[in-house]
Design a protein that fits this description.
about 140 residues, alpha+beta, Heat Shock Protein 90, 5-stranded antiparallel β-sheet, about 25% strand
Length: about 140
Amino acid sequence: MPASESFRIPKNRSHVPVARQHVRKTLAGWGITDELADAVTLLANEPVTNAVTHCKVSHSQIKVELTLTGAELVLEVSDPDRNRLPRPHDSTPDEEGGRGLALVAALADDWGCRQEPYAKCVWARFGLEEVQAHVPATL
């Protein structure tokens, strides 16, 4: 049976570290504390920051969901600005930002985005073959 954890944060930059901490704590609770935890926590930062920065829906919340199955870990970040799908872009060396989705693509096994009825969702999948021994047997 898959394990799942979701939480919401206000659309405010000051809450991005809270999201990272919650992701790290959830992963630790599932026994994932190695390089995979570092990668997932880092990658959670990117779509959460994008949602907080680019969502144009006032007073909205950002939803973060982690799902752990026997074979994979899925990270999903949703916000209510469903028509503003993220697009990777080539950043110049002088640009301060714009590399987040490239980082997600480099570190996740797969990633994408989808429109839902009232939100958009950016997701990333991570294979668990290498860390299977660390996943609690009760999952």
